[in-house]
Specification:
The chain has about 140 residues and is mainly beta. It has no helices and 14 strands. Strands 3-4-5-6 form a 4-stranded antiparallel sheet, with no helix packed on it. The protein has a 4-stranded antiparallel sheet with strand order 7-8-9-10, with no helix packed on it. The protein has a two-stranded antiparallel sheet with strand order 1-2.
Length: about 140
């Protein structure tokens, strides 16, 4: 469910049975990006009131959260995949970036400890987390 504070409208968008929208954040245009528990990145387009699902490039992975940077690209960490993902909404393509080191069950949880830079998201201090462990 999406609640538009400006208009007071509440939207229940149609999603596939496997999407499972989870954590996420709004981008600069007001679109909501979230992790899809079923192996996809999910966008709720505020202008069209439609959901777009983008399958992840690595099989058998899912996301914990998603976050748009100031350039409009969306970042996420694969659970059980060992990579960070950068998604370009203009071309609808993913770039896979390998984590500097991995921990049990892969890297990955992008969280609110990021700050914006001209290169996208930068993390300080650098924490990687898996399903059952964390490393610094």
């Amino acid at each position: 469910m999406i609640y538009d504070r400006k208009t007071g409208e509440l939207y229940e968008a149609d999603t596939s049975p496997n999407s499972g929208p989870a954590r996420g954040e709004f981008d600069g245009e007001g679109n909501y990006w979230s992790a899809g528990r079923g192996g996809s990145l999910i966008k709720f387009d505020i202008k069209t009131k439609r959901v777009h699902e983008y399958p992840l490039p690595t099989p058998y992975t899912s996301l914990y959260t998603a976050r748009a940077d100031k350039n409009g690209e969306v970042w996420a960490g694969e659970l059980n995949g060992g990579r960070y993902l950068r998604f370009d909404p203009k071309t609808e393509t993913f770039t896979r970036l390998y984590a500097a080191r991995t921990v049990q069950h892969g890297p990955a949880i992008l969280d609110r400890q990021f700050h914006q830079s001209s290169l996208g998201l930068v993390r300080r201090p650098r924490w990687l987390a898996g399903a059952h462990s964390a490393a610094r």
